[in-house]
Amino acid sequence: SEGPHALSFVLEPDDSAPFDNRRFACLSAGKSPEVVVVGDEDVLSVATMISAMIAPPAQPPDQQWFALRRLTGPALATTPLEPALAVILADPTGLAPASWPALSAYVSAGGTLLLIPGDHAPGEIGGSGDDLLPAPIRGVISPPEPITVAVADLTGPYLRPFADPSIDSINDRLVYRRLDLGPPAAGGTVIASFSDRSPALLERRVGRGRVIQFAFSPARQWSQFGTQAAPMIVLLHAMLESLAPRPENIDSFLAGRPASHRWVGLVPSSVHLTAPDGTASPLDFAGDTVVLPTRRPGHYRLRSGDGSTILLLYAVNTAESESDLTRLGDDDLTARFPPGLVQIAHDPDRLPARRSGPDGPVSWTVPLALALAGLLWIETLFANRFYGRRSNVSK
Fold first, then answer.
1. Nearest-CA neighbor of 39 among 78, 80, 99, 92?
2. Taking residues 314-330, what's their average pLDDT?
C-alpha cells in the first residue's frame, strides 16, 4: 500500500554481538512521478542533457525520485501525456502541428509544460505554440558580451534553494545566447531576468496548469549551464519537486546522534511518539523544532493525537563502524595498547605457563628479600661502629 512503511532485517543465526544483529529502515511506497522529455535522442542533444540532470544514468532507478520517459518530436502528437507530472520540450525537432492542441489540453487539465530552447528555436516552438507561451519568441540574440542570470529575490519556490550558500549560485554562469522575447502574454510573469534586464525565466498559468519558459539553454554554444550544470540541476529539481514534493514523513538516524525535525505550527499536545519497545516517549520542543530520541536502535513513530496519521516514521541504527567484522592481526591489536602491556596467547592452555614462565608477570619476592637482608647487614655495621666508639670513650 502507498505511504510510509517500516522494514527490519534480522541476522540468523545470531552472532556473539547481538546489538547489531538487527537493522532498520523506512521507505515510502507509491509510484514515482513521471516526467516526459521531448527532444532528439542524440547523445549531445539538449534533451539528453536535461534527462541526465533529472535522472542520472549512473544512479540506480530505485534511488531516483522521478521516472523518465523520452519521446521524439514526431511521436509527441500520437502519445498520451497523462498522467505525466510534467512535459519538457527540450529543443525538439519534427513537432507535428497536432502536437500543440495535445499540449494545450494537457496543460489546461492541470499539467506542467517546460520549454527549454536550443539551436532549433524559435523554428520548432515559435508560432504554433504562441497560445501557450508566456512570451512570444522573436528570435535568438548573441549579446556583445556574455551576460548572466541576475536574481535578487530568492523567495520564490523555484529559486529558494539558491538561498543556501553551499549551493552554486544561479547568477554565476555565463550566457552567450538568449531568446529574444516579446512582451509577456496575458497571465505571463517574469520569474528571473538577465543582467541586461531581459527576461530569463517566465511562467504563465493556462487553465489549471502552467507553462514555464526558459530564455537560456544548457547547450554549449548557449551558456555554461550544461558544462557547469549544478545550478541547472537544482533549478529543474526545484521546479519538479514543487509539483511532487519528496516525502517528509520518513527519515533515518544513527544511534546516539542528535536528531530533530521541524514542523511549523505543530502543537506539542497534539502528537505522541512511540518507541521501539511500544512505550510512549516524551518529546522535547524548541519552538517549531522537535528533538527526536535516538538512544535505542529501532523504529520510532510520531503520530497525530488520535493516532490516525503518522507524521514521521524514522529508523535508528548503530553506526556501521561499530559492526566492522574485520579480524585484527596481532600487530594491530597490540598497537592499541601501551608497549609491553599486552601479550597475545593464541592457545588458552598455555596461559598458566605464560603466567609462571619467563614471559609471565615479574615476581618481586626474591629481590625484596635480598634488599631486606642487605639493609639489615648495613644497619649492623653502623651499630657496631657506633657502640664500639662509645665504649672506647668511656675508658
1. 92
2. 76
